[in-house]
Amino acid sequence: MDIKQLRYFVEVARREHISDAALELNIAQSAISRQITQLEKELGVTLFKRSGRNIILTVEGRQLLSQATQILELMDKTIHSFQQHVSHNQQTIYIGYEESDASQMILPLIQTFEQQSNSTMIPQLTKHDKLLDQILSNQLDLAITEFTPVLERETHLRVMPLFEENYYMYVPKSHPLAMTVHPPLSQFTNQSLYCLEPMTSSIKSKLIEKTKAQVRMISDMKLAQHILSHNKGFIISSQNSLLYDHVNWTKIPLNHTELKRMLCVVMRKDNKKNDINIAWNLICTLLNKSTIY
């Protein structure tokens, strides 16, 4: 006896007609008849008898119907209970982030989180000025963003600084500034400056303020290399740029200047999702300074 046989039996008993039960179950009449016959052989009783065009339950059939109904109801309740439990535990954690050196760690973060939890993680690249609103409105569970005084003032938010994002100035080797140690940003006044995307608006604004120069945005790595190789300007990029060292240019660290920012992770204190703390702790572990560099 198996669950399929009991379901077929109960459906036929309720409808008193094999063809009607077959339509409801969307299977062939012969399949139902075969299962009912096997069930009768296994139990050693006759479950149905004919009454005109219909079939009705025998005494043994009525007894089995009562017990089979209870078995199927209990099984359905058990399945539903476990499905609810799984659904409750398998939640989705929505994480927003802005372009930064942390972006490269989003995939390892998702992979590690989903290995260690019952939930899934959905990433969303978002502009800096949108992240806080989306956290406050519960559109996002977590955000990796720039640490600002505004975040510090939000008492119902949990905020943890992660690492300082620094920048480099790439200078053609033939230029006199290539030999400068710890140059102030003001020393790059009147130079042709290019920011290699991704570059946040706050960093670009600081650069313009301190250099008083016109800053152009570019996104193509080969174009950046062309500018440097042909002495057409300087390139500003983050520490994890793919603009590698080269014989034609020098990389000058700018961590002694104002051109830096602190990245942090933020969430609502009242976020009660099951695996939110696993996600929080993983971010704090994976996105520390030793990992990013």
From TrEMBL:
<dbReference type="InterPro" id="IPR036390">
    <property type="entry name" value="WH_DNA-bd_sf"/>
</dbReference>
<keyword id="KW-0238">DNA-binding</keyword>
<keyword id="KW-0804">Transcription</keyword>
<dbReference type="GO" id="GO:0032993">
    <property type="term" value="C:protein-DNA complex"/>
</dbReference>
<dbReference type="Pfam" id="PF00126">
    <property type="entry name" value="HTH_1"/>
</dbReference>
<dbReference type="GO" id="GO:0003700">
    <property type="term" value="F:DNA-binding transcription factor activity"/>
</dbReference>
<comment type="similarity">
    <text>Belongs to the LysR transcriptional regulatory family.</text>
</comment>
<dbReference type="GO" id="GO:0003677">
    <property type="term" value="F:DNA binding"/>
</dbReference>
<feature type="domain" description="HTH lysR-type">
    <location>
        <begin position="1"/>
        <end position="58"/>
    </location>
</feature>
<dbReference type="InterPro" id="IPR000847">
    <property type="entry name" value="LysR_HTH_N"/>
</dbReference>
<dbReference type="Pfam" id="PF03466">
    <property type="entry name" value="LysR_substrate"/>
</dbReference>
<dbReference type="InterPro" id="IPR036388">
    <property type="entry name" value="WH-like_DNA-bd_sf"/>
</dbReference>
<protein>
    <submittedName>
        <fullName>LysR family transcriptional regulator</fullName>
    </submittedName>
</protein>
<dbReference type="InterPro" id="IPR005119">
    <property type="entry name" value="LysR_subst-bd"/>
</dbReference>
<keyword id="KW-0805">Transcription regulation</keyword>
